[in-house]
Amino acid sequence: MQTITSNDFNPNLVPILSSFRALSDPIRLQIVELLRSQELCVCDLCELLSIKQPKLSFHLKILKDAQLLHSRQDGRWVYYSLNLPQWVILQDYLAKYRCLNPINPANACQD
Q1: Which top-rank group of organisms is this from (predicted)?
Q2: What span, in angstroms and rounded, lies between the C-alpha atoms of 58 and 56?
Q3: CA–CA distance, 51 with 38 (Å, rounded to integer)
Q4: What residues contact residue 53 under an 8 Å CB cut-off, 6+ apart?
């Protein structure tokens, strides 16, 4: 069996890791679902999610830091949309697991 240490960690996986961390919260998943079909203003997201603006801003920042969202300002309003290139990176990463070879059984443990 091959032992993997923290020194073996592939730095190319950092964007993947941050994306999965960002998506691990139910509120952030709801935000993503709402943004799947259209760009939305913060005020609309607050209303649709029934949460206050500071809480929403916290979650939007995490999604934006993970490069999952784009934002644009129009006057005093900020609009959010999905950052599609980052979603393609996630899709490509996960696609590798669709074509799995048969998984070998574990070796018997020794007492």
Answers
A1: Bacteria
A2: 5
A3: 19
A4: 42, 43, 46
pTM, two decimals, is 0.81
- Amino acid, res. 58: F
Sequence-ordered list of residues with C-beta below 8 angstroms from that of 88, at least 6 positions apart, any chain? none
Per-residue pLDDT tens digits for 26-54: 999 999 999 999 999 999 999 999 999 99
Determine how β-strand 40-41 pairs with β-strand 69-74.
unpaired
> What ranges do the domains of the chain cover?
13-94
CATH class of the domain whose range is 13-94: mainly alpha
Tell me what percent of the chain is helix, strand and coil, each rounded to the nearest 5: 50, 15, 35
